Amino acid sequence: MSLYRVTTDKLEAVDRTTFAEAGVFERRDLQRMLRKDISPIGDDLMVIAEEFGDWEDSNRRIDLLCLDKGANLVVVEIKRTQDGGHMDLQALRYAAMVSSMTLEQAIDVFAQTKGGDAEEARGEVLGFLQLDSVDEAELTGDVRIVLVSADFSAEITTAVLWLNQRELDIRCIRLLPYRLGGELLIDATQINPLPEAEAYAVKLRKQAQEKRKVLGLRQQTLMKFWEQFIERSKPKTSLLANRSTTKDHWLSAGIGKSHFTLNVLLTRQGGQVECYISGGEEKSKAAFAALQAQKPEIEERFGDVLDWQELPGKQGCRICKTFPGGWTTPESDWPELQDRLLDNLIRLERALRERVQEL
Q1: How many domains does the chain divide into?
Q2: Helix residue ranges per DSSP H, the chain
C-alpha cells in the first residue's frame, strides 16, 4: 500500500519509513498513544488497564486491556516490528487468563488504573456500557483479540483466519509509518479480517454460537425485541435495513460519517436514542461543540429538547433523548415502545445528518 500527497499536477508518493528509523518504541510511544486514544483500532473500545498482569505464576503482561460495548474483554497486543513476531500465541494465552474475569473485577482493575477511586470507575464503566447498574449485565466470557503491528507474517494472518473461522474474534490492525517533511504519519488499517467481509463472518459466527447455547431471559427478550423492531422499521426508514437482530441492549446505525453513530438502547427500565461522537477526547469534544453551537436549529428540526452530554474526561460525547420503557416492558406494549424509539431515531437522524456531514 502507498500513501500519496496531492500536488498541483500529480500524485506524489509519501516516503515509507519504519518505527525503528523514526525512533518510535512500542511501550513508550505506540502503547502510550493508543492508551490515550484507542479509536485508531476501534471506536467501541474503552481502555481499562495498561500492562495488566494480575495473575499468579506468570510475569507476562497485556499491553492494553479493554472493554467493548458488548461487555466483552478485549486483549490488545502491540508490536512495532514488520512481521508481528509471535504476538498471536501470546495474545491467546492472555485471553485465556482473563476469560473468567467478572464485570466487578473489571471495574476494580479500572479503579486501580485511575488511582483507586472505585465509585468513579464504576460510573465510567457503566456509562460506557450504557447500563444503570452492574446487575443489568455481566461480562460474556468471550474475549476479543486485537493485534497491532507495522506488518504481519503469513503465519500470523493464516492463524488469524483459521481462528476466526472457529468463532474466536481476532483481528489484525496494521500501523504503517510514513515520513512527510518533518511529520510522521501513520496509516491505521484493519487487514484481517477484511472489513468488507467482517459483517458476514460475524453473522456466521453468531449463528453457530446460538446453536450451541441457551440464551438467558434478558438475551432472549432482546433478541426478540430487536427482531420485531428491525422489521417494524423497514416501512419507515432504511437506517436499519442491513442490521440483524442482536442479544445486546443496543442497536446501531450509521449517519454517513466516521466517528458518528446513531444508537438505540434499552436498559431494564428505560429507552434511549442517541448520536454518539467518538474519535478521541479532543476530536469528539470539538465536533460536539460545533453541533451544540447549532442547538436551537437542531432541536427545532428534531421537534423536542435533547440531552447534550459532553462527558468531560471521556473519549466521546453524546446527544440523546431518553424516555421510560425498557426491556422489561410487557410484550403486549412493545409496538408502542418500538414506534416511540423509531420516531425518535428518524427525527434525530433528520436533525443531525446534514450538519454532521458539514463538519
Answers
A1: 2
A2: 32-36, 87-98, 103-113, 118-129, 154-165, 195-212, 217-233, 281-292, 295-302, 334-358
SS3 43: coil
The mean pLDDT value for 61-88 works out to 88
Q: What share of the chain is helix, strand, coil (3-state, %, to 5)?
A: 40, 25, 35
Cell numbers standing for residue 156 = 500470523
More confidently predicted of 130 and 85:
130
345 with 338: CB under 8 angstroms?
no
Strand order in the sheet with 317-324: 250-254, 260-266, 270-277, 317-324, 307-309
The residues that bridge with 192 in the sheet, in sequence order, are 172
Domain stops at, among 175, 200, 225:
200
pLDDT digits (tens, 9 = 90+) for 121-131: 898 898 898 88
DSSP at 9: S
User: Residue 320 has which C-alpha cell?
Assistant: 440523546
Residue that has been written with the C-alpha cell 499468579 in this structure: 56
pLDDT (0 to 100) of residue 146 = 94
Supply the CATH number for residue 295's domain.
3.30.1460
Q: What is the distance between the alpha carbons of residues 316 and 301, in angstroms, rounded to a whole number? A: 24
At residue 236, the pLDDT reads 92
pTM of the model: 0.63
More confident call, 244 vs 117: 244
Helix (H) or strand (E) holding 171: strand 170-180
274: closest CA among 286, 290, 291? 291
Q: 188-234, pLDDT tens digit by residue?
A: 888 877 665 556 556 666 665 555 444 567 888 898 999 999 999 99
Q: Are 356 and 254 a contacting pair, CB within 8 Å?
A: no
Range of the domain at 19: 4-101+139-200
Q: How far apart are CA 208 and CA 42, in angstroms?
A: 25
For residue 214, the model assigns a pLDDT of: 41
Same domain, 274 and 190: no
Write out pLDDT tens, residues 267-309.
Answer: 888 999 999 999 888 888 999 999 999 999 999 999 999 999 9
For 76, list phi and psi in degrees, rounded to 5. Answer: -115, 120
